[in-house]
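Protein in question quoted in full.
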Amino acid sequence: MLWRNLGLVALFLLGVLLMVMLFLRWYTHHGQSLVLPDYTGQVVEVAARDAQEKSFQIRVVDSVFLVGKEGGIIVDQNPKADSQVKQKRKIYVTVTKEAADKIPLGRLPVLYGKSYDRKQKELKQGFEINTKIVGRKYDAGAPDHILEVIYKGETVVSSDVRMDDVLIEKGGMLEMILSKESGGSLDMPNLICKSYDEVLFQLQTLNLVVGEEEQDGTVNNIDAAYIYDQEPSPESRVYTGDTIKIYLTQNRPDDCDEN
């Protein structure tokens, strides 16, 4: 009887020991650390599915527009890749936006009359806005200073214009007309009724620059188009190197024979 009781006690103790060992094994496996994958550069939906399979959770906490990148791409994550984390850990990510951020012109620095080189760097580094020179005009002030700013075909900054409410996209392009010190003056030729190719050649020989080209909606072949208006007007005084604006239509204007 004694040996039977001792045997039962031994079996009981052995069973308890096995249960404790199994519990400790399960507990250790349940709380073990896992290596976090690198989700940067991935589409957030794809990354979220992969994370779910690995017992992680992805949460989008911020978005940012990056020039040249499509929307929904993970650009940052916390914790970082290769971190040791527990199961069901939440991963906080920043993704790219599809639409460009827009900045009111009024938030940009003063451009008119300022050095182009300085403002070019300031706009690029501080606002991710590109610039390019599309023409020059004579001005009594210092050379290479900004006289006009054109955005999407519209003059938004000049000596008497500043459209502070116009929204400029990050990655967008501002076209600049700069000042020059001197230039020989001449009478502005009459370009109306002449063909586009003829006007380009004539202005080139006079050292005048074609700036804006505004079309009336009929133009489907610019090389065969005609000029129906111009700025500056015919016979006004201009300087070599000045920028000229021309207005184009596909068919030769009806009143051309009178000019």
